[in-house]
Amino acid sequence: MNGIEEIHLPPRNQHKTIPVPVDHLISVKHNRWSKRFKIWIGVCAVIGIATFLTAVLIPILLINGKSAISTTSTKTSVTSTTNTTTTLVEGGQRHIKNLKVGDKIWSINDHNFELVEDEIVLMMHNEPNQKEWSNTGSMNYARDGHTSSVLLNGKVLVCGGNNEVSTLKSAELYDPSTGTWTTTSNMNNARSGHTASVLTNGQVLVTGGYNDRALDSAELYDPLTEIWTNTGKMNNARASHTSTVLKNGRVLVTGGSNGNVLDSAEVYDRLTRIWTTTRNMTIAREEHTASVLINGKVLIAGGAHNYHISSAEFYDPITETWTITGTMNDERYAHTATVLTDGKVLVSSGGPNSAELYDPSTEHWVFTGNMSDARFIHTASLLTNGKVLVIGGYIAGVYLDSVELYDPSTRKWSTISSMSSKRWVHAASVLMNGKVLVTGGINNSSHLNSAELYEPY
């Protein structure tokens, strides 16, 4: 591997390899020694060797600028590895590539006498971690209030939005393999504040939005032909609504505003291309969130209707009914909601800097740590490692470039390196390679056409 030295530790009864970036110093601390030793001479030999390594070899290696290990019992060797995870002392699993300074991990080491439990502490690294953010090609048009959809071929479709001049009907494609943008055919209607949903057949359904007024139109983009086709009108014009692909392939559209905040909901059938109304929500709301739960139901949370809303309800596609569920602890609108790998739903900010978890099995909400920054109209992306990346947004007249990570295994937030640009009303998509593409938005002075990539390490 480039710039990676791999350190071999023998946990339990098999070998595990832990790759560590070059120029890291690792200190291995032992929580307890084996209670009995079969060969006292062997112990003395091990201690003697460790003392020699600590006193003589490590200083030499450090002077030469190489990685070293300070240990009293753990053997090390350089070897190759594939994906490996390790257990954190505080609980949960972490990929060895994601270990950071101060992390503590467990291993069981066989010293040819008995199994011994060690606590390994990453004490220091002399070089910063690899850069998490990098710029990629700029879009052809600056835009905010647009949508970003990952197609089945891995490319990303960005469409609509606003710039300093007008509402846009333009669309463009990002190719992750080249980092470049190409224009594709325009939508039939300019729009911003709309939704875009990738259907099971790979086409993209765009609904509603604003263009001087709320729109009731909907259209389909076919990636094979790169053509947009009108696909019937919704029963209600709406913007700031939600659009959710159900497990049966249909699309549920809820709430929003057309001058009045709406409680209506309707369903699109991609086979017939027909919109049908379904039962109304219990509360009218806009700027809310919609999340498909593991059981197929749709959780609607928060939003606004002359006031900020803390209530939540879920929709059952089988019975086409709405049921009130537990209320959030904080009122929220223009927040984010992310379905975690364990089926719980994480909502973040859209009010105070708090975050909450919804458990579908209990229908209860619990706080799960505070973010460093409160924020509105930000993005939240579920990474392939199960963490949630929260990006940008706006709060109290301040545009944000700050970025935070939520770790479900510890239920803690951590601040990571910031984006190169402040942005809100932007879009973010998780690419098939695990990177996150962030596009457009507004900063302090203008609409942005820039894009950048986040790569988890």
UniProtKB/TrEMBL annotation:
Gene3D superfamilies: Galactose oxidase/kelch, beta-propeller, Kelch-type beta propeller
Pfam families: Kelch_1, Kelch_KLHDC2_KLHL20_DRC7
Domain of life, source organism: Eukaryota
Residue ranges of the TM segments: 39-63
Assigned keywords, A-Z: Kelch repeat, Membrane, Repeat, Transmembrane, Transmembrane helix
InterPro entries with a match to the protein in the record: Gal_Oxidase_central_sf, Kelch-typ_b-propeller, Kelch_1
Manganese as UniProt keyword: no
SMART domains xref list: Kelch
Entry-linked PANTHER family: KELCH REPEAT SUPERFAMILY PROTEIN, OS02G0202900 PROTEIN
Annotated protein name in UniProt: Uncharacterized protein
Natural source organism: Adineta steineri
